[in-house]
Amino acid sequence: MNLLVVCPHFDPDVAPTGVVMSRIAHELIARGHRLHVVTSLPWYQHHAIDPGWDGQLVRTERTEWGRISRVHPFPTDKRNIPARALAFGGFTALATLVGTFGRVRPDAVLAMSPPLTLGMAGRVSATARRVPLVFNIQDVFPDVAIELGLLTGERVIRGARALERLSYRMSDAVTVLSDDLADNVRAKITIGLTGERAEVQAAKVRVIPNFVDTNAIRPAARENSYREQYGLIGKTVVMYAGNVGFSQSLDLVLDAARSFQTIRPDVVFVINGGGSARPDLEREASSLSNVRFIDMQPIERLPEVLAAGDLHVVP
C-alpha cells in the first residue's frame, strides 16, 4: 500500500510523538508499504528550528521507501496561546497542501494528534484522494489545555470542543492508547447522537497501546554510570524523565522537594529532560539543593536512566 502519514514530528526530531511515529513508520516499511511522511522541520528540543534545517518553508527528502516532506512549524512561545494557535494553523495549512497534492495517490491516510488540527489536514487529503483516514490520538486535546487554564473563554473552549468532535467524526477510524481515553473520545464523538448513528461513531474508536522495544529497554543495575556521572551514588532518587513542559505541572515536584529538603537530605529529585517550562523551573528551584536538572540523554542510555530512579514520577 501507499500510505500518507501526517504527523507533528519525525526522525531525527526527538519529540516523543516523533519517536513513536518513526517506529510505526519503519515497521510499516518493513512490511512492504511505501510512505509519504508529511511532518515538521526538526525543532522540538530547543523550540527553534535545528541548525542546518532552517531557511526553507518545505524541504523534501527522497528515500528508498518513499519520501519525507518537512514543513515549517513556526515555533512560538508555548505560553502565548493566540500565537501558538496561529503557528498550528500555518503548519497545518502547509501540511495539508503538501499532503493533498503529492505525486503519488495514497491508499489511506494516517494522521496524528496533537496537534488536533492535523486531523483536519488528514481529512482534506483523504477526501481529495477518496481514501480512508485513520486518526491516531496520542493525547486528548483540548482537555489538557483547558485543565491547565491555558485555554480560557467560553467561546474559545466551545470552538475547540467543536473542532475536536468534528475531527473524530470525520475520521474513518480513531485510535487511542488506553481504555479510559477510548471512553473519553466515545463520549465526545456521540454527543447529540442516538441509536444507530451513535453506535456507528462509537465503533470507530479502537484501543492500540503504544509499544516498548524490549530489545533496547532492558533491566539495568541501579548503581550505574548515569548515577556516577551526576553524583547520585548512594542517594534515593525521585526521577522524572521526559518533556519539561507546562502541561506536566512539574512545580508539584519542586513542592515535594521543598518539603523533603530538611527531613530527608538523602532524597534527590531529578528532572531529566528539556522543554519550554525548564527555565522557569530552574529559577524556582535555585534555592533547593536536593533538585538536579539533567539534559535529555541519548536513547541508548534510557535503561540506565530508568534504573537510576528509585521512584518515578508520571504527571
Structure characterization notes:
Helices cover 38% and strands 19% of the residues. It has 315 residues and is of the alpha/beta class. The protein folds into two domains: 206 residues, Rossmann fold (3-Layer(aba) Sandwich); 88 residues, Glycogen Phosphorylase B (Rossmann fold, 3-Layer(aba) Sandwich), CATH 3.40.50.2000. β9, α9 and β10 form a beta-alpha-beta unit. The protein starts with a strand and ends with a strand. The model has no long low-confidence stretch (mean pLDDT 94).
Write a brief structural summary:
The protein has 315 residues and is α/β, with parallel strands linked by helices.
Quote the distance from N terminus to C terminus.
Answer: 38 Å
Question: Regarding CATH, which class of the largest domain?
Answer: Alpha Beta
Sequence stretches where pLDDT stays below 50 over 5 or more residues? none
From the 3D coordinates, which CATH architecture of the largest domain would you assign? 3-Layer(aba) Sandwich
Counted beta strands: 12
Percent of residues in beta strands: 15-25%
Strand count, sense and barrel status of the largest sheet are: 8 strands, mixed
Shape: globular
In the CATH hierarchy, the third-tier topology of the largest domain is known as Rossmann fold
Which structural class matches the secondary elements?
A: alpha/beta
How would you write the strand order of the largest sheet?
3-4-2-1-5-6-7-8
Q: Radius of gyration, rounded? A: 21 Å
Number of continuous helical runs: 11
Q: How many domains make up the 3D coordinates?
A: 2
User: What is the CATH superfamily classification of the largest domain?
Assistant: Glycogen Phosphorylase B
Helix proportion: 25-40%
Order of helices and strands: EHEEEHEHEHHEHHEHEHEHEHE
Average per-residue pLDDT, rounded, comes to 94
